[in-house]
Each structure stands twice: as C-alpha cells, then as structure tokens.
User: Which sequence fits this backbone?
C-alpha cells in the first residue's frame, strides 16, 4: 500500500506541492493529471527519493520515503519523462547494469533479463545496441529496466509522450498487465482519454493542490453536478428549448441546430424518464435521447483553472 | 556480522562495480579507442626518438657524460608520461560524469539502491583504467631506457607507481568539480585548471624544500619530505628517498601512496556529499576526512620545515626569523585551502534543499552534518586541529608559544571568521539559490583580498605614505608585521573580529526577515 501523507515541496516562497494526501492499493493504476508545472513530476520525484520533501512523507508498505530512502529504492521502479539511456551498450548489457545495481544475484540475472525482455516484447532486440532502438522500444526498455528487481511500486512520468499510436497502445496494454500483476502503478500524463482507458484511480493536481482523487467513475460523478442530456428530434422544433426550460430538474437548455437540444438536468433517472414521456406525449418525435457521459477531460477542465506556478 | 557486511559492501563497491563495468564495455568498443591508442603510441615513439636524438650526441664521450645524457632521456620520458596522464585523467572523469548528468542517466542510477560513493568509485575505476593503459603501453619505452642505462628497473617501477598515483590524484581533483559543474566544457576546463594549478603550484614548495634540505641529486638514498613524491614536477628526484619514523627508514613512495589514497578518498566523499541530502553518511565522512587530511598535511609540513633546520629546534635556531611570526605564517599558508571550501560551508539558501537552510548561524551539534549552522564551528574545528597538531610538533621540537603567537593566531582565526561572515551576508542578498550565493562569496573574497593591494599602494604613493603605514589599517596584511609591531597585529585581529561580528549581526537580521517572508508566503497557501 502506498500512503502519501501531507507531502509538501517548497522552493523558497514557491509552493510546488502543497500537502497532498492519497492512498493506493496493490493493483491500482493511478493516473496523475495536471498541467505543466502543476506539481506532478515534483511529487513523483519525491516518491522516487530524488527530491526531499519540505514537509510530509509517503510510506510504501510501511517504509518511509524520508526516513529510509535506500529501502524504498529497492521497492520502486522509476521512469522519468525524459529518460537517459546508455546508447553505447547492448540491450542486455543495459539491463544487466541495472540488475547489478539492484543486487539481483549474478546467477539469476540472465533469466531475469530474458523475462523482462519477454514481458516488454524486446526479446528480439536483446543483442542490439540501445542507440538502434526506436523511440517506442527505448520507452519499453526503460520500463524493462524498472522491472528487473520486481518492484512493488512503479512511477511512470509521462510514459506515453512522443510515442506513435501503436507504441502507445502497446504501452497501455503493458501497464494494464503490470496492474494485473498486483503492482501499484503511478502514471502521469497529459493525454487524458488514454488514462481513462486503463487507470482505475485518478488524481487531479493544480498548482500543487490535489483537487480531486478517487476511482475514475467516482471522480467523474462527484464533479458532475448536472447531467447533460442530448435530445434529437425527427423534425425541426426550435421552440423545444423553451418548452423544456421550465420543466422540473432542468437547469439549462441549449439548441444545437434546429433538431437537437442539450439539456442540463439535475434529476434522477426516474425524473429523466418522466421528461422523455412528457416530450413524447407533447407530440415531439424523439429519435435520440442520451445522457452525455462526462469524461476525464471535462472533469479536468472543470476542476482546474489553468493557473500555473 | 558487521565486518562481513562491511566486506560485502566494499567488495561490491570496488570489485565488480556495475558503473565501472558498463564504462569498460563502452570504452573499448568501436574504432575510436583503437585510433586513440594508436595515436598515443605514435606520439610516444616520435617523442622518444626525438628525445634520444637530442640527448645522445655523436662522437667520443666519457661514460659519465653518456650516463647523464641517458638519465635526462629517461626523465624526459617520465615527463612525457606525466603530461599524458595529466591531459587524459581529468577529461575522462569530467566527461564521463557530465555525460551521465546531461543525458539524465544519473537520475536513473540515483533511484537505484546504491550510494553516491558506489557510482563515483565506478567512475574513478573506469577513469583510472585509462591511466593504467597509458602507462602499460609505454612500458617498452621505459624498458629501452633501462637497457640503455638511463635508469634501473627499481626506479622505473617506483616511478610508474608514482605516476599512476598522480593520475589517481588528478581523477580525485576532477571528481567534485565534475559533480558540481552543470555542463561538460566547464567541468573539463575547471578540472584542468585545478590539476595544472596543482602540478605547477606544487613546484614552489618542492623547490623551497629542496633548497632547505640541501637534497642530493636523483637516485641518492637520502631523507626527504615524502610529499615531494606527490608533486608531478619533481617526484623523480626522490624516488629512492625515505622518511625516518621512530628510527626506521620508511620508503617515501609508500607514505606518498598512502597519503594520496586518503586524499583521493577525501575527494570521493566530497563529491558524494554534494550528491546527497542533509546529514548524509557521505557528508559526515567528508567532514571527518577533512580533519584527518588537515592533521596529516599539518604534520607533514611541520616535520618538513623542521627537518630543514636539523633534528632539534630551539628559539635560537630560527636565526633572523621571529618565531611567533614564522609560526603564524606557517599556519596561514596551511590554511589557504580553506578558501576553496569556504563558499560551500559559509553560504545558505532557502530556495534549495534542506541541507542549505540554516536554523541559526552557529550550532556545534551540526558540525559534521553539513548544514549551514555547522559551517562556522567546522572552520573553527579545522583551525583548532591545525593549531593543535602543528603547535604540538613545533613545541615538541623546542619552539615556544607565547603571547605574541596567540595574537597572531587570533588574527588568523579572525580572518577566516571574517571570510565566513561575508559568505553568510552575501547569502542573504543572493536569494535566487545557493549557486548564486557561492559565486558571489567567491567574487567578494577575491575583491576584498586582492583589490585593496593596488588601491592602497596607489593611495600611498599619491599621499606619500610609506607602504608599511598605509597597510596598517588593512586587516588582511597582518603577516606584514612581526612581533616588534605586535600591537599592530593585535589591532588588525580586533578589526577582523569586529567586522566579522558586525557582518554576522547584519546577515542574521536579513536572514530572519527572509524566513518570516517565506513563512508568510507559504502560510497563505493552505492545502486545498
């Protein structure tokens, strides 16, 4: 279990991370969302023991990041947004280097290297020089390096940046697989729809403050104070907006062309059914009646103001 | 159990170091290394041919002349090797570390469960491999010198060991510079500057030591200060020299090698301390090594100076020198290296990590932790170590320590407290980070130390005041005056202490206001 407890990072009077708190369970894939300069990388670096928190701490299965950084290092895998690979060595040599650093016994190293190469689909490139790998493969190699010591927590800072759609899809699948293996995965990203696909928990950070945290569905639900229902009619009916405006639970309406209206609705599903019945009874020929699902992007835009530090 | 753990750690750091193995794999790959070594061998052969042609003149000559010529041939070969090592060692280490910083691979290594020492030792080992290759490839040429009669195998082996030690020393100097630097070019340039300053600067004490000790020519089995073997410019003169310790003649190359290893370790923990957090093992180790190195250098320098005057020192044997003045000069010269560490231990910043944030200006409990409030106590501890070891040796050899000596020491201590207080004050103005504070402190130190000399000189000549009189008010000039003018020295000491206290008071007022401003700013940002 990862517990983040009032983590703060100040640079003089600049507050980069402002006492954030959350907890993650094994198997959780946590999407960390925020604009540039919001505090994502600073938080991840503090968890990776690269930065010292000004206040607060984090615990991984009871081990304190501040008090026992060496033990934490044994249990985490960190992949920075801009990762430096040694391009003058072979793929297996690169992994062997990190396996040695992580004290993987010399006898087990070849097997471990083969396993992580297989997991990241790089077995074929075992003898290739790192410099000859594509960007996507290098990304997977860096992820493979994070796995040589079988960590409990993976910290992936913008892992999908600069990847083509195929490489992105492969990486997504790989991360989902790591979650299934029971690891806690923290992923920061700007590409919000992508996070929604495989993260089961999200956190939104702005100017160092954690604005929202929880399972994706709950966060969306919490933020979404009113549903938006899109109603499409068979024939043009510009007056439908006025017709719906005063009805119970309708907070606002917008005409989208002459046949479509968007209704902001604060009622229950029962109230929703009543409104549909009322429309049909009033002679409107409804061809489509659907609730617009709010996505992470909507939530993000609603929660944040766009302010940076 | 503890010993087994310690041994396992040492084995891991020094043998099979992953960082060194990785560099080794990359170092010997491709055509570049082959080209480099071919070029090196070519240059070496060309140089040796020219040197040989230059020293061996055609025609009939006496055996003695030929012997001398072959010896100078051998010396020029050693000089060439020393030059190659001085050229290659700093650049290999500087580039290797900076390459890790630039491509951000250091960040990945830093998240692995290894200490900075592990990483740095790996870099030392991979850099040192280059030095050893340089020496190994030149062995046939040294063998030629032996065959021709310019040197013996014993001399060659000890000389090679010493050049290898110099290479290690250059690597050691380059380590902290490479870690502190932010780019490759400054890292290499500053490393060269430091190494070459050492190589050339060390010629001065060596020359004075040789002059004082009246040393015999090269190859003589004589007593000489061990540290001359650590100096690149003159080591070959003392290859067969020794130091008498409790009646036993210990070869100087053994002592020089041991001292070099201690100093290199000091550099490694220094670089490691830069890379770690508040109160790290590396910082504590650095501070302890700093005291050990201070004690060793003080003892070495004391014994050398005293050896130049015979085995026993009496006040009379100082001849025209004033004993108090001379002892103060001795301590002043010895304490000069403090100038290089002062910017690091006298400055602070609230913009950076916790290890740079002070909670006061003087806290004895933090003397080894590396926090700013432990800086002044540490400087005083270094000076105390120097005074105790140096004073003890001088007293043991018959020198006297009187009131005049104490006044000189008060002046010298005041000088370093003053330079520390300047660092404390400039930090309160340079609030854009610790780097700015350090650079500002270095700049002010240079200005305060050097600028008044020409200015006061010009003022003196315009107003027609004798130079002794005009420098009477300038506290840095304390060593200008001997004990016949001890009250001038006392005045200058007082001047230093008063200015230092005033600067500290001012700096503390500013620091406290910075703290309250920061607190106000951060309190306004309560967690959401």
Assistant:
């Amino acid at each position: 279990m990862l517990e983040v407890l009032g983590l703060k990072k100040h640079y003089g009077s600049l507050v980069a991370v402002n006492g954030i708190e959350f907890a993650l369970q094994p198997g959780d894939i946590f999407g960390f969302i925020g604009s540039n300069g919001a505090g994502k990388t600073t938080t991840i670096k503090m968890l990776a023991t690269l930065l010292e928190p000004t206040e607060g701490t984090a615990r991984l299965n009871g081990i304190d990041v501040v008090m026992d950084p060496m033990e934490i290092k044994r249990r985490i895998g960190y992949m920075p947004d801009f990762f430096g690979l040694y391009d003058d060595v072979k793929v297996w040599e690169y992994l062997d280097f990190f396996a040695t650093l992580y004290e993987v016994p010399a006898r087990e190293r070849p097997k471990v290297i083969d396993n992580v190469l297989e997991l990241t689909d790089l077995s074929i490139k075992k003898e290739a020089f790192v410099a000859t790998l594509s960007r996507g493969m290098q990304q997977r190699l860096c992820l493979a390096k994070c796995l040589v010591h079988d960590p409990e927590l993976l910290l992936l800072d913008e892992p999908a940046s600069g990847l083509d759609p195929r490489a992105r899809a492969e990486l997504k699948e790989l991360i989902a697989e790591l979650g299934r293996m029971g690891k806690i995965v923290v992923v920061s990203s700007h590409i919000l729809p992508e996070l929604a696909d495989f993260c089961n928990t999200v956190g939104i950070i702005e100017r160092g403050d954690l604005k929202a945290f929880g399972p994706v569905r709950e966060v969306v639900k919490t933020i979404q104070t009113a549903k938006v229902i899109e109603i499409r009619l068979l024939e043009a009916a510009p007056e439908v907006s006025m017709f719906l405006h005063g009805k119970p639970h309708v907070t606002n309406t917008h005409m989208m062309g002459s046949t479509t209206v968007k209704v902001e609705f604060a009622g229950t599903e029962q109230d929703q059914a009543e409104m549909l019945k009322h429309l049909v009874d009033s002679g409107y020929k409804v061809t489509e009646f659907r609730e617009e699902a709010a996505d992470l992007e909507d939530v993000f835009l609603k929660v944040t103001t766009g302010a940076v530090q | 159990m503890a010993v087994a753990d310690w041994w396992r750690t040492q084995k891991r750091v020094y043998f099979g170091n992953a960082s060194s193995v990785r560099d080794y794999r990359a170092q010997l790959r491709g055509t570049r290394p082959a080209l480099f070594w071919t070029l090196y061998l070519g240059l070496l052969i060309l140089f040796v041919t020219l040197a040989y042609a230059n020293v061996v003149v055609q025609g009939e000559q006496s055996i003695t002349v030929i012997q001398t010529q072959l010896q100078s041939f051998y010396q020029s070969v050693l000089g060439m090797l020393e030059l190659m090592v001085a050229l290659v060692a700093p650049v290999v280490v500087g580039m290797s570390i900076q390459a890790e910083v630039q491509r951000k691979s250091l960040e990945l290594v830093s998240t692995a469960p290894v200490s900075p020492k592990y990483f740095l030792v790996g870099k030392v080992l991979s850099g040192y491999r280059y030095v050893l290759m340089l020496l190994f490839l030149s062995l046939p040429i040294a063998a030629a010198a032996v065959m021709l009669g310019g040197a013996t195998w014993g001399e060659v082996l000890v000389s090679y060991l010493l050049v290898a030690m110099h290479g290690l020393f250059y690597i050691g100097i380059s380590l902290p510079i490479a870690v502190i630097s932010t780019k490759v070019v400054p890292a290499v340039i500053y490393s060269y500057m430091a190494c070459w300053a050492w190589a050339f600067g060390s010629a001065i004490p060596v020359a004075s030591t040789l002059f004082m000790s009246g040393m015999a020519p090269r190859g003589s089995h004589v007593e000489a200060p061990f540290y001359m073997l650590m100096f690149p410019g003159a080591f070959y003169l003392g290859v067969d020299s020794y130091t008498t310790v409790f009646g036993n003649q210990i070869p100087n190359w053994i002592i020089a090698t041991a001292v070099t290893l201690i100093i290199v370790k000091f550099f490694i923990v220094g670089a490691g301390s830069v890379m770690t957090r508040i109160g790290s093992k590396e910082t504590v180790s650095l501070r302890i090594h700093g005291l050990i190195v201070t004690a060793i250098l003080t003892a070495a320098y004391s014994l050398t100076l005293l050896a130049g005057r015979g085995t026993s020192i009496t006040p009379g044997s100082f001849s025209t020198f004033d004993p108090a003045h001379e002892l103060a000069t001795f301590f002043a010269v010895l304490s000069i290296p403090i100038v290089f560490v002062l910017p690091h231990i006298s400055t602070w910043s609230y913009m950076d990590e916790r290890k740079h944030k002070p909670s006061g200006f003087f806290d004895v409990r933090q003397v080894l932790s590396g926090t700013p409030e432990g800086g002044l106590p540490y400087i005083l501890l270094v000076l105390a170590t120097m005074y105790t070891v140096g004073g003890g040796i001088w007293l043991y050899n018959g020198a006297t320590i009187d009131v005049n000596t104490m006044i000189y020491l008060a002046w010298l201590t005041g000088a370093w407290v003053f330079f520390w207080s300047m660092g404390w004050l400039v930090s309160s103005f340079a609030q854009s980070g610790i780097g700015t504070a350090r650079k500002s402190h270095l700049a002010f130190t240079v200005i305060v130390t050097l600028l008044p000399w020409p200015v006061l000189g010009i003022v003196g000549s315009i107003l027609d005041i004798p130079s002794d009189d005009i420098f009477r008010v300038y506290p840095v000039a304390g060593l200008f005056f001997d004990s016949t003018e001890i009250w001038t020295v006392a005045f200058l000491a007082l001047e230093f202490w008063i200015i230092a206290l005033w600067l500290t008071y001012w700096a503390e007022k500013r620091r406290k206001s910075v703290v309250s401003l920061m607190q106000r700013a951060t309190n306004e940002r309560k967690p959401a």
Notes: The mean pLDDT of chain A is 87. Residues 232 and 260 of chain A are 4 Å apart (CA to CA). DSSP finds eleven helices and 14 strands in chain A.
